[in-house]
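for ur thesis appendix - TonB-dependent receptor. copy paste whatever u need, i formatted it the way the template wanted (i think)
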Amino acid sequence: MKIKLATLISILFCNLLISQEVEEKLSISFDNISKPDLLKKLENKTNYSFFYNSDWFEKDSISGNYQDIQIDELLDTIFSTTNINYFLFEGNKVILTNNNIIYDEFPERFFGIDNNDTNKIKKTYRKIAPIFYEESKSKVSQDSRIYRVGKQNKKNNQSFFSLSGYITKDGLAEPIDGLSIRVKGENKGTITDLNGFYEIKLKPGLNTLEMRALGIEKSEKKVVIYNDGILNFKLNESLEQLDEVTVSADIFGDVEEVISGTEQIDIEESKNIPLVLGERDVLKVATALPGITTAGEGAAGFNVRGGRTDQNLILFDNAVLYSPQHFFGIFSALNPFAIGEFNIYKGNIPAEYGGRLSSVFEIKSKNGNTSKFSGEASIGPVTSNLVLEIPVVKDKSSLLLGGRGAYANWILRSIDEESLNNSQASFYDFMASYSHTFNDKNNIKATAYLSRDDFSITSDSLFIYSNKLISLNWNHKINEKNTASFTLSNSEYDFNIEFDRGENDDFNLNYTINETGLKMKFNYLHSSKLRFDYGIEGKLYDVKPGSIEGLSQTSIIEPLTIEKERGLESAGFVSGRYDINKKLSVDAGLRYSFYAALGEGSERLYSAGSPRNEGTVVDTLLYDNNEIIEAYGGPEFRLAARYLINPDLSIKASYGNTIQYIHRLTNNTTVSPIDTWKLSDGNIKPQRGRQFSLGAFKNFDSGLYEISLEGFYKNSDDILDFKTGADLLLNENIETEVIQGEGKSYGLEFLIRKNKGKLNGWLGYTYSRSFIKFDSPFSEERINNGEFFPSNFDRPHDISLVTNYKFTRRFSLSANFVYQTGRPVTVPVGTFNFNNAEFSVFSDRNSFRIPDFYRMDFGFNIEGNHKRKKFAHSFWTISIYNVLGRNNPFSVFFLTENGEVKAVQSSIFSIPVPSITYNFKF
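the 3d part is after this line
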């Protein structure tokens, strides 16, 4: 009995001493020192001893000044943002632990359980239960090591914790999207989004994550989770990227994605899709998807869901690319080997994007290999491509260089158009991208791009047009819940026409549009159910509408320079995704945009209630430099919702309205290199559009098949068109040549896709209509009696079949089939004589159609052997474009010969076009 009493007194005395030590206060100040150095300073200043592993601490530094603070309060403060816990032992010993907690007592009533208190005891035990796991004693590779996440907290009694982060390719810092993440032994999983982001709920303790994706080595990650936390992974590429030729999709991405009307192009898809002259082209792949078309074969520009070609925002590394195509639209202006990611938003456009009505084409370059020198190249009948990936600082930074050149003169001579037989054409593009990762919190990427086309239709004329852009992007991780990105960009498009036939009417004409943009975007992960994006952006437009001057001193051409235009467009945006429950998720956003047309400049005022022409001008106003000529703005709402009927079937709906402050001026049926852009001002209003969509998305056999059916309706105001006989080039008063009206389009898009197996590919069908209306009290500003009529790109039926059959790992056969309704045209329907001259009478605008378009292509793909230890992996493509020899009309025009009106059809490729391309990757 004496021994027990002595022991009890001793314990009480020790506890009293510990209590006194804990209550002892101290004062300390420190400036810009590491946590281990701070602990050493505490040891020198006090009688405390610390036990820890210095590898647990990040290499950041801290500062502070504390007066009369207890040791536990100080430790709580300096370790609040870390995973470090601590335990006070024997009064002056502090044991630090990483993630977990040291327990110094048993749970309440551990040695005796009252049946009446069973629920209470179970709850208490779960609340403070320590986390145990079995760690392998054998040698562990990096792929199978155990990751510890979160800081254990006695007060946290959650049954599940949230794990999130980003997954990238090892050595490339390139996000892996569509990666399947499954919890081993449980029916639970998720997939990464377009930025490689994932989020998953895990039970406390040890979890094994299985990760799989096309072109990525399969891996398992063991994670011990103590609390909510962030964990980023880097995964290795596998040789499947060379082997596979399937058109792949996310297993459940199309079903689970909240925003509707999105498309993601797998860059590897394009190498197996037979295109003209064997050229790999991701933009042509995009036109094989429902809702995205062109005005015809070889036509530049894209029409998305019945929208105009100027209503698409095309971004390359966050900088605007005004002309993404070479050679009248036959080739892409982007090196296919330099592209790492390609996303299309054609439905509900995220609030961070604005300035266009129909779509956003978001194209990102690859991040270069940071571990070893590598590259990819191709040699074809018309172009050659080369991309080099050069490590600068191992595992931190790399330089990506890409270049393309063309030798296309022979193709002009083969086109069924006599006027082009003696023409010449060439183009090139070059890009450089430098990426650098400073640490886990900071990385930058700088990109520069240049393209140029030179073509001569006749021996006395030379057309030159070019793109230039540069962008600088900085990504910063503020803390575990907040990240930020900052982008500075500049884009320029210009064209130049030289005409010189040795006479006195030679001239040089040029045009330039330049824009400089700054964007700041922030991401906030509030919880596993709610996250926000918000930010601001602005861009300054500088347009030189054109100038002309004589090439020689004897030229009779009078110099003329159209007054330049300037405009400032700015916006603030916020959007959030909220998972209301497991089935219903909402993505809502608000963007408020503001635009101001800026001086120095002048603007003409026209008589109210009169048409705009030279005879109705009442005044001309002059504006000083940076003075606001006219201002526009307004809110843009973005709302999307998704309801999961079951894990592989969902319904989605969306609404969005957009404002566009810039217009393309053209009186051609398709995009022309000499089209110009016009900023909104006091006489030309911005375009405004609204879109509604509703769709169903279904997957079968664990993602082997996917089917989607989506309908849409769009309407727009103040879209720009030209008056009959308008002269748009070098016009000082362009508002007198154009009119603004309404547009509407609607349609239904169907897609069925097979993602795996020997036979894979997709079948897409789109039924859509696109109409425009220009009504006015004045006949010169009214078209088709003020009624709706089909737009130039109204093609009701569009069918695309893309297939690939893999015989072996090395040999595969690809085929495409495309069918489209012929586009509308205006035709002469009669003639009449007036003053002994014959004139044609034309139909209502676009009331007739050219013949329907259809084409079939075949390609045979041969891969080299898949030995790992070889200098380069090769890939041959033998293709036949337009294998049926279909003479598809590109345009139809009319001539009068001997008093008779005749229709003349022009075609781009009227015969089968074979090609062979050699690709190699090292």
